[in-house]
Amino acid sequence: MKPAHRIGFGWDSHEFVTGVPLKIGGVTLAHSKGLGGHSDGDVLLHAITDALLGAIGAPDIGTLFPPSDPQWKGADSAVFLEEALKRVKLAGYSIGNVDSSLILLAPKIGPQAGNIRGHVAKLLGISSDCVGLKAKTPEGIGTDNAAIANVVVLLEQASASKKAAPAKKKSGS
């Protein structure tokens, strides 16, 4: 029997580099450096993707989208998230909520937190009040030139009513 709930955890990090835009949660942020990576380096979407995949026991993001494969060079991380969402649905689950913590020195996330939460919620197809986003500075851990994302996701078994609503009968027929 399939569990009613599943929890997944995702973690990702990328180093800041010059010459690329900074994307976090699918939102481009104003900053002098972006995050290096084979794709667009979006640590938050990568961690969410891994959390979703882990919750259903699927292969991780690096296995599904290997950095050695040139087709993923510069890819929008939303593509990876879409694949994870398809797999979650096929496994018979839907997202209950997502909670995340970003660890980076700059830029300050607070002014953009609402935009990031809203965009992540839109990508996931859930309400923004089901997306938690916190940002911390890396005091004392020696990661001033990197961004780190930690994510936990709660999946709920999709009920028959969530999968397909019954057709309404016309009155008088």
Layout: helices, strands, pairs:
Layout: E1 5-17, E2 22-24, E3 27-29, E4 34-35, H1 43-55, H2 61-64, H3 78-90, E5 93-103, H4 113-124, E6 131-136, E7 146-157, H5 160-163
Which key terms come to mind for this protein?
five-stranded mixed β-sheet; 60s Ribosomal Protein L30, Chain: A; two-stranded antiparallel sheet; 173 residues; globular; single chain; alpha+beta
Give a written overview of the molecule:
The protein has 173 residues and is an alpha+beta fold. It has one domain (5-159): 2-Layer Sandwich (60s Ribosomal Protein L30, Chain: A), CATH 3.30.1330. Helix content is 27%, strand content 29%. The protein contains five helices and seven strands, in the order ββββαααβαββα. The strands form two sheets. The protein has a five-stranded mixed beta sheet with strand order 4-1-7-5-6. A two-stranded antiparallel sheet has the order 2-3. The longest helix has 13 residues, at 43-55.
Q: Tell me, what's the shape?
A: globular
Please identify, by name, the CATH architecture.
2-Layer Sandwich
What's the main sheet like? 5 strands, mixed
Run of helices and strands: EEEEHHHEHEEH
Query: In what order do the strands lie side by side in the largest sheet?
Result: 4-1-7-5-6
Strand tally is 7
Average predicted confidence as pLDDT = 92
- DSSP strand (E) fraction? 25-35%
Number of helices: 5
